[in-house]
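Changelog-adjacent note: as of this version, every example in the card shows the full chain rather than a window. The one below runs 160 residues end to end.
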Amino acid sequence: MKPSTGDPSSPKIVVNPYTKAVASSSAFSVEAMAAELHRSQVALERLRLENKKYRERDEAANAPLSGGILAWSDAKAVRMMYLSNMCNGSMLISAAVGSFFIPGETAVSTLTRIILVAYMVFLGCLMLAMECNLYLIQEKVRLRFGWLFTYSGRAAFILL
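Full-length structure tokens:
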């Protein structure tokens, strides 16, 4: 608080620059000064908390990917790929069978629909067979569809 300059006999006017409170030095008591100090501390703490909240929000928004997929262990990543490929294969089969039973007249002939549905079911079964790792079919799948066991081949198969 800054006292004002003036006649020493007149009461001094004091202005708090943070709260803009004005008080006379003759009316200032210890309790009033303590209350003003407390209000200033509360206002300062409120500003600190707001600053901390905004700083944490900005840090979280600008932080690199510290969690999520990049934080997974290799075993968890393999497990999630396994589950997603099983879901993809199952959904491919379901979509193929479901598309065969779409009611109404379509521009695609019945023979063409049957061939496309059979092809989609085959690809869905191939994806499931690749992920199931059944001993009886594993070697046959690896021999005939070896490209499914490379990352680029599997990605191309899923994307195309």
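Structural remarks: The mean pLDDT is 75.
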